[in-house]
Amino acid sequence: VLLHRLANFQRVWSLPPNENTGKEVTALAWRPDGKILAFGLADTKRIILCDVEKPESLHSFSVDLSITYMHWMEVTEESSVLTSFYNAEDESNLLLPKLPALPKNYSTTAKIFSEEKSDEIMKLLGDVRLNALVLGGSSGFIEIYAYGMFKIATVNGVAGSCRGLCLSSDLKSLSVITEIRDSSDSEAEITYFQASKLDTSLLSSYLPEVTRMARKFTHISTLLQYIKLSLTCMCEAWEEILMQMDSRLTKFVQEKNTTTSVQDEFMQLLLWGKASLELQALLMNQLTVKGLKKLGQSIESSYSSIQKLVISHLQSGSEALLYHLSELKGMALWKQKYESLGLDASGIEEAITAVGSFILKANELLQVIDSSMKNFKAFFRWLYVAMLRMSEDHVLPELNKMTQKDITFVADFLTEHFNEAPELYNRKGKYFNVERVGQYLKDEDDDLVSPPNTEGNQWFNFLKNSTHLKESPLLFPYYPEKSLHFVKRQMEGIIDQCLQKPADVIGRSVRQAVCLSLYKISQSEDSTPQLFKLPFLWNDKTSNIHYVLFTILENSISKIHILRRHTDTSRSVSNGILAVEFGNILNNSINESSDSRCYSCLDAHFYDDETVTVVLKENVEQEGKERILAQLPLSSVYTDEDQDRKFIWDSTERLDERSGEIPTCTVFLENQWRVLENMKAQYVSVNGIRKVSCVLSSNLRHVRVFEMDVEDDGEVEEEEEEETT
């Protein structure tokens, strides 16, 4: 993906294909405020939301099928309820502490959470006004994502692969153009186009509720990402060096000839101050005094980093998540407003419980870190002195002091951590699990190797003996055998499931209002790149009309057709359709008969609500006959209001079979055109707000940018640049 500034074609950034995101970009869409670019990848079936300023993925999600078209629209509907919601300060900002930024020194942290006073997250959430990213893909796949992040509808019942779609700005209707392939004839695959218009009135009638719900969903979505990244940072803080103790001791067991256990060897050293020759060799030759010191420092720095991440990031993220889910549960209980959108209180209750279990697990990890740090400190201090004595080095007097309490502490540590476990060897290839923190951060389904010891815990005993509390919904379930990663995955799954329901309910409410068969395309046309082909859909926000532009080949001329439909499907509006012919433009030779001057339309795009930009070519292609860029005002097409209603549509027939009966209007363009010299122009892309058009050549190698509204001495003069890649 390459992003260039329009004014001088200076490259802003490029995002090369990579393994993580994907290699084959099939669709792009700008967020209406122009701050975020979304693109879909076919090979990995992912959607990436990228910042306009720098090529960084702010958010990404996976879809089931590869995407062929994307459309990002903004809701323009106004109402007093919505206005008050837009203007109200988001309460969570007042009630929740600001999420601390993630430390920068970890490779995986997405920049989005690591910059101080991170506005990135707000940039990702964008304006409160609802906007929706509509995705269309192969085999009738259509999904709508609120704010480009959270799925609010999965639309079923559309056949074929999506070629274009458009959601009206009042959310009342969705127009889709699909391509249906007939597989019976393998050589010339015949393709039908259908403009199916879907009625999405549930979204529009519950607009304030949908907006509120979607806003909550996006908060939850970003918090889940924050928790995931915090956990990734914790995994990076835990280093492999901490496994040294386990592997050295395992090797020692495999090589020693004595029958005494490792635990006894260390106990003898603790009690009599004498070590067997084998233990001496292990400590002095393999572990070494220097190595022991380094191991001690690694454990301390690593554990304290993990501890900080749990306390400041994991816990604050989970608490914020708990807050938003509780708010969502409050909405779900307001049945008259939210029930019909599929919000389900019991599902959200389960999600809240899952977050509770995750917080419990994080607390358990904190306790394990705390006790491990104490134990290791005492153990290493004792072992360091013992090793100095073995090597007959001078021992500082302050190190030599060891109280009875310290000795008991080390003895307990040895009893608990240094017993050999043959079944562990079969599972993990080691006999020991001295280091207890790493097991919580492993992303695997296995149970913990050394779960915490809950014997003698009064609360556990109390729960065990109480019949009423066992099943209480107020208590969060606790999974003593599972790792933190496992509980997090379980939590994500439950939250996803409870937020998935509205998308299904809203999707099921979408009804098909009309289905029209347009035309079939020949195999030869099919070789042109899929990316730019007509038909083109446009939604006129002021008069709530969907327009479809497409061309039908008639007597070897590609004639442009305009189809109009009102977005309010309840109104009985017939399908207005009109064909447009272009009269003589290049009137340079008078004696040529006017019939031979026919123009085929190569590409067309709506410039704004009143104008269509077209690329034309003369049908009699000779040297020096250049292609033409022209502006077609709709006012010159729709001179008589009802002229496009005269065609009586029979939905059983395809439109191109009756193309001769479609009313045709001939347009003479006065000065709204220009010849494109030295360029085999084929495609056009326009932006009416910025008053520019980009024309792309048929070999996709040359781009020209034109300013459209520059008047100078009656001549239309445009700036142009050419970019050759």
TrEMBL record:
Residues 197-393 form the Anaphase-promoting complex subunit 4 long domain. GO terms for cellular component: anaphase-promoting complex; nuclear periphery. It comes from the Eukaryota. The lineage of its organism: Eukaryota, Metazoa, Chordata, Craniata, Vertebrata. This is Anaphase-promoting complex subunit 4. It holds the Pfam family ANAPC4_WD40. GO terms for biological process: anaphase-promoting complex-dependent catabolic process; cell division; protein K11-linked ubiquitination. Signal peptide: none annotated. Gene3D superfamilies: YVTN repeat-like/Quinoprotein amine dehydrogenase (2.130.10.10).
